[in-house]
Amino acid sequence: MPLFRIRLPRCVLLTPLLAATALCAPLAQAQQTLITRPIRLVVPYVPGGLTDILSRIVGPHIAKEFGQQVVIDNRAGGNSTIGTQLMARATPDGQTIGMIDAAFLINPALLNRVPYETPRDFTPIGLIAIAPLMLVVHPAVPAKSVKELVALAKTQPGKLVFGSAGNGSAVHLAGEQLRSAAGIDIMHVPYKGGGQAIGDVVGGQITMLFMVQGTGKPHVAAGRLRALAHTGAKRSRAMPEVMTFTEAGFPMVEAATINGLVGPAGLPGDFVQRVNTRVMRAMNTREQQDRLVDFGAELATNTPEQFAVWIRTEMVKWAKAVRDSGARVDNNP
User: What fold is seen in the domain 132-230?
Assistant: First the structure.
């Protein structure tokens, strides 16, 4: 649904100045949405992940903007649809917003049932961060680059195994992009979460895995994993020695995780703009950008209108990736 801004009519000065000022005052006050209670910031995951951490970083800044506490409400389950449904069904008065990730873009194509309509049921507020995915292999794998890994896969069709945090996750679709771009036959093993997949690639049970740089960096530094490339547009400050997939010759491998703020459809335009401005200003500092680098993420500065266009474009891209992979999740109760 398009965002809107409240436009004030021009006061006609047919009376003395004092009377005109009195007439205009209520109109000026009506321009700003009044927030009278703590703001609920819904996170569709358990505490501890990047989506939750970013929510707790931006929450205090939103609180300062409106003079009200921001309460983080973790509502995990349903491949993130339980918490996302709360965002969609909330009253559009500014008292409830939410932090979304890549599943927001992927789920409409991946799941057989989604209890809301994306993007119709949401008001985009702002994209905050993009975290490129890094391809890592166990050190025993005789490949020091993406091209060497592709060559190895072509000599052993169906033998190399890549894990993921589940069917249709961003890390799964990154593997599918590599499969398609390189024309190789590799086996996908979905796990119930990223932690188990990481444990198995470190242990050598699977060949490779895509993961965010913030998670993979300690394993690479300790020699437990070898990083081959990442999906970002340019080399990261966190691991500048790791080339991009574009440099490796596979620019089509571009899947990444993202985080942004949305609210229910119909949020007042002035509220949306105030949240966007405050959050973007807060995150666009060296301190916060350094924190994002530690997480393996990059700041994404944009307007609500730009975020709305970006969501639609990304949904088309992810829908194609889901179709090409054949991934499907039956989430009927």
Answer: D-Maltodextrin-Binding Protein; domain 2 (3.40.190)
Hey, what amino acid is at 59? G
Instruction: Give this prediction's pTM.
Output: 0.83
The pLDDT score that the predictor gives to residue 333 is: 52
Max intra-chain CA distance, the chain: 88
Q: Where in the chain is the domain with CATH 3.40.190.150?
A: 39-128+259-325
Q: What residues does CATH 3.40.190.10 cover in the chain?
A: 132-230
| Angle (nearest 5°) at CA 23 between 269 and 7 | 20
pLDDT of residue 208: 97
Output the pLDDT for position 26.
39
First-residue to last-residue Cα distance in the chain = 29
Whole-Å CA distances, 91 to 87, 130, 328? 9, 28, 32
- 185, 184, 193, 174: which is closest to 136 by C-alpha? 174
Cα(199)–Cα(137) distance, integer angstroms: 12
Give the H/E segment covering residue 70: strand 70-74
Looking at residue 192, its pLDDT comes to 79
Does 3.90.280.10 match the CATH number of domain 39-128+259-325? no
Per DSSP, helices labelled H in 204-303 are 213-221, 269-283, 286-295
Amino acid present at 320: K
For tokens 């500092």, name the residue: 285
Q: Are 54 and 128 in contact (CB under 8 A)?
A: yes
Per-residue pLDDT, 332: 56
Closest by CA to 132, choosing from 295, 256, 217, 260, is 256
Tell me the pLDDT tens digit for each residue of 262-282.
999 999 999 999 999 999 999
Rounded Cα gap, residues 143 and 273, in angstroms? 48
- Where the chain has pLDDT below 50, the residues are 1-30
- Cβ atoms 125, 305 nearer than 8 A: no
At 327 the pLDDT is 81
